[in-house]
């Protein structure tokens, strides 16, 4: 499990470790504090530069000089207005006292809520080990880490997982290879091919989505109406309540906003001038992903008992709040070592972490070529 949480430290492409963060992703000193940015995707980079009135060709040094002339809160607000991703680095106390911090600390760690729709909930084939989910169809509408980790776990247990990506926003290569094992991959343009998505939902058992809250509904897509009785798992950065409910975010950004970066910076950088740092793994992503997978299975079990659809929700910020409140925090701990190579699997030129469950020595198959599959379900073991 520890190696799976640190999977980005084990990934190798032709023996080389990929760059996990892009040039404009990271910590930047501002006129009064620090911010953390995320610009791994080209469209997020473009929005971040626009937010700071910089040209598309701006390099890291020039960006840093510009950030140093602005206040951290100003950069955070500019980013939010442009749909970019940057937050002011906060202390744990500041976050706990903020409206969004209070929202993130409330409610269950995994929220499972019945809906009003009811419909036939199919049972998998034999439902026995080692593939108890054989015959269960999972529609994967997620990206980056948390959502794909959830669906990768379901694929490991035998589910037919179909990942759908937008053709105009391709996924980062190493992330796809690290989280798409055991799945099939296709592309569907939701702006023009909504009937295709609706057809996939109508024959799915579980849908896992990572869009910001309300995004699917604004497209007119309500899974419970299309497929009564379906389990809909959702992962978001900040949760669905509070003033940041519709903002974008990632693990590193939530760490910075919630106080984790300052906690880790104090421990990691006690001998230099950097007060900011990060957890040795993207723990909020991975923990949220496995929590979502477990919640989806609980919801599927209950739906089979009463035919009632259910929503399952997790949020990186809620997971972070739970982590901050957990007992046993150890100050001044040494840096965590990288996972041993024995916890990795290699297929051709690609090395990734072994599955999180020790009884599985490997994933069902390596990640397929991106977008190589068709937007349709495989025939179930019972022929349906």
Compose a concise summary of this entry.
This protein is of the alpha/beta class and 384 residues long.
Account of the protein in words:
- The protein has 384 residues and is an alpha/beta fold.
- The protein is 35% helix and 16% strand.
- It has a domain at 109-240 and 283-353: 3-Layer(aba) Sandwich (Rossmann fold).
- It is built from 16 helices and 13 strands.
- The strands form three sheets. Strands 5-11-10-9-6-7-8 form a seven-stranded mixed beta sheet.
- The chain starts with a helix and ends in a 31-residue tail after the last strand.
Topology summary:
Layout: H1 2-5, H2 7-10, E1 12-13, E2 26-29, E3 34-37, H3 42-51, H4 60-67, H5 72-82, E4 86-88, H6 92-97, H7 99-104, E5 111-118, E6 137-141, H8 146-156, E7 160-165, H9 173-179, E8 184-187, H10 194-202, E9 206-209, H11 215-218, H12 223-226, E10 231-236, H13 251-258, H14 260-268, H15 283-306, E11 308-315, H16 316-325, E12 344-347, E13 350-353
Parallel strand pairs: 6-7, 6-9, 7-8, 9-10, 10-11
Antiparallel strand pairs: 1-13, 2-3, 3-4, 5-11, 12-13
Helix pairs in contact: 3-5, 8-15, 13-16, 15-16
Mean model confidence by pLDDT = 93
Unreliable residue stretches: none
CATH architecture of the domain at 109-240 and 283-353: 3-Layer(aba) Sandwich
Tally of contiguous helical segments: 16
CA-atom Rg in angstroms: 21 Å
Instruction: Write down how many β-strands occur, each being a DSSP E stretch of 2 or more residues.
Output: 13
CATH class of the domain at 109-240 and 283-353: Alpha Beta
The share of residues in helices is 25-40%
CATH superfamily of the domain at 109-240 and 283-353: Crotonobetainyl-coa:carnitine coa-transferase, domain 1
- The name CATH uses for the topology of the domain at 109-240 and 283-353 is Rossmann fold
Distance between the termini: 35 Å
Indicate the overall shape: globular
The largest pleated sheet is described as: 7 strands, mixed
Secondary-structure content class? alpha/beta
């Amino acid at each position: 499990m520890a190696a799976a949480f640190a999977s980005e430290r084990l990934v190798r492409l032709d023996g080389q470790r990929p760059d996990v963060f892009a040039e404009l992703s990271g910590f930047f000193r501002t006129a009064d504090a620090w911010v953390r940015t995320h610009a791994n995707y080209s469209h997020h980079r473009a929005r971040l530069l626009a937010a700071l009135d910089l040209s598309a060709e701006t390099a890291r040094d020039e960006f840093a000089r510009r950030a140093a002339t602005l206040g951290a809160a100003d950069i955070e607000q500019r980013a939010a207005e442009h749909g970019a991703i940057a937050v002011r680095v906060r202390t744990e106390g500041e976050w706990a006292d903020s409206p969004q911090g209070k929202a993130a600390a409330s409610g269950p760690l995994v929220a499972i809520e019945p809906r009003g729709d009811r419909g036939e909930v199919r049972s998998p084939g034999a439902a026995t080990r080692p593939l108890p989910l054989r015959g269960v169809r999972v529609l994967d509408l997620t990206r980056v880490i948390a959502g794909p980790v959830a669906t990768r776990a379901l694929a490991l247990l035998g589910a037919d997982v179909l990942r759908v990506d937008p053709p105009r926003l391709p996924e980062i290569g190493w992330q796809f290879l690290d989280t798409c094992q055991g799945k099939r991959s296709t592309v569907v343009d939701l702006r023009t091919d909504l009937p295709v998505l609706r057809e996939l939902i109508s024959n799915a058992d579980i849908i896992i989505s990572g869009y910001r809250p309300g995004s699917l509904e604004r497209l007119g897509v309500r899974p419970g109406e299309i497929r009564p009785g379906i389990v809909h798992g959702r992962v978001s950065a900040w949760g669905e309540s509070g003033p940041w409910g519709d903002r974008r975010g990632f693990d590193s950004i939530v760490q910075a906003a919630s106080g984790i970066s300052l906690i880790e910076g104090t421990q990691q950088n006690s001998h230099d001038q950097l007060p900011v740092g990060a957890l040795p793994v993207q723990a909020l992503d991975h923990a949220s992903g496995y929590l979502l997978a477990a919640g989806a299975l609980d919801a599927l079990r209950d739906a089979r008992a009463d035919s009632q659809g259910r929503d399952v929700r997790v949020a990186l910020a809620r997971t972070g709040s739970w982590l901050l409140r957990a007992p046993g925090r150890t100050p001044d701990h040494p840096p965590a070592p990288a996972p041993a190579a024995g916890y990795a699997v290699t297929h051709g030129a690609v090395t990734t972490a072994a599955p999180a469950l020790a009884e599985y020595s490997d994933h069902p198959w390596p990640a397929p070529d991106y977008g190589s599959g068709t937007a349709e379900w495989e025939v179930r073991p019972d022929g349906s």
